[in-house]
Amino acid sequence: MHPKTKEKTAVEIDFYESLLKRLPADVDALKLLAEAYTAFGRVRDGLDVDFKLRSLCPNDGYVHYNLACSLALCGQVDEALTTLKEAVKLGYADWKWMIKDPDLQIVRGDPRFAIEIKSLFAKKV
Q1: Which of the residues 3, 27, 47, 83 could staple to 68 if both were Cys, CB 3.0 to 4.6 A apart?
Q2: What distances in angstroms separate CA 65 from CA 7, 41, 84, 125, one per listed residue?
Q3: Is 78 in contact with 112 (CB distance < 8 Å)?
Q4: CB–CB of 107/84 below 8 Å?
Q5: Tell me: the pLDDT tens digits for 14-66?
Q6: Mean pLDDT of the chain
């Protein structure tokens, strides 16, 4: 990460953490904080925020997709695959991004990925 980008991301993290002390259930701020944590390399912190988002937005496919990405970045392949399936069932439909998203690299290396994801998207068509 470029030093200026790293500095900007650190400022964003401070801002969102401060905001969330006053508004702990602000979904938009939580999404931005999770993204900033991940960009800064704090993937475990991003994962914690994504779990909180899932509890606040249990029917949001996009939230589940981001949680799956965080799980994958933390090496939790089984959980990531399960969460990806749930994201698709809840309406996440960008399979073109899913097959190239760098966050899911470890998951795409698992033979179950192609089989399960192809099956899920076939049911949607």
Answers
A1: 83
A2: 27, 19, 6, 19
A3: no
A4: yes
A5: 999 999 999 999 999 999 999 999 999 999 999 999 999 999 999 999 999 99
A6: 91
Give the chain's end-to-end CA distance (angstroms, integer): 39
Distance between CA atoms of 18 and 16, rounded to whole angstroms?
Answer: 5
The burial class, CB within 10 Å (0-12 / 13-18 / 19+), for 59 is exposed
Reduced DSSP (H G I as helix, E B as strand, rest coil) percent helix, strand, coil of the chain, to 5: 80, 0, 20
63 close to 50: Cβ distance less than 8 angstroms: yes
**What gap in Å lies between CA 89 and CA 124, rounded to an integer?**
9
Q: Which residues are CB-neighbours of 32 under 8 A, at least 6 positions away?
A: 12, 16
